[in-house]
Design a protein that fits this description.
This protein has 3 helices and 5 strands. With about 180 residues, it is α+β, with helices and mostly antiparallel strands. The longest helix has about 30 residues, at about 135-165.
Length: about 180
């Protein structure tokens, strides 16, 4: 079974090819130009699990002279991972997007305009002393329910902003009203 490898030009350090080691039996390649060398890709630990809205994955690749642990006649092309935190403005943008998704899920856009206009009409009639219908009362109650949930979402967003400003890592998906 061949493994992932790179073909390296020794004199320049240039990676000429990324692919599978050319021999199934993993033995040395006979007749290879002396300025070329295969290294086996070695990943000592798996890619970390992380929230890409909070962190950026950094992949480090290193040409080494360390022997591969399973095929000691070949050196390692070591691949390691690290993460670093995104800028607070980027994390806040991710929180804003989560709030928008929450709000859109609460009150579907095709119905928003209709209910808001009907609620405004009912409020105007009520303000002018005109009795509103049972249907209009239902619409006002429904719109008020949405207003409460939108306020809860906004409060949740503000809590997450405070966490970000305090260099904490908020759970972006938690706390949104349903």
């Amino acid at each position: 079974m061949s493994l992932p490898s790179i073909l390296l030009r020794i004199s320049t350090g240039e990676i000429l090819q990324r692919g599978i080691y050319p021999r199934q039996d993993m033995e040395p390649v006979v007749g290879l130009d002396p300025d070329l060398k295969y290294l086996l890709v070695y990943v000592p630990y798996p890619e970390p699990i992380y929230d890409s809205r909070l962190f950026v994955l950094n992949i480090q690749e290193e040409i080494t002279t360390e022997p591969h642990p399973d095929h000691t006649h070949l050196n390692q092309f070591k691949v390691t991972y690290s993460t670093y935190k995104r800028a607070n403005t980027d994390i806040k943008l991710a929180v804003d997007n989560a709030e928008s998704l929450c709000n859109e899920g609460l009150f579907l856009k095709p119905k928003q305009l209709k209910y808001i206009v009907m609620a405004l009409g009912a409020l105007n009639r009520s303000r002018n002393g005109i009795a509103i219908t049972n249907r209009e009362v239902e619409i006002l109650d429904k719109v008020q329910g949405y207003a409460v949930k939108f306020a809860q979402a906004e409060n949740n967003r503000d809590i997450k902003y405070t966490q970000i400003d305090n260099n904490e890592e908020p759970d972006i998906d938690a706390g949104w009203p349903v």
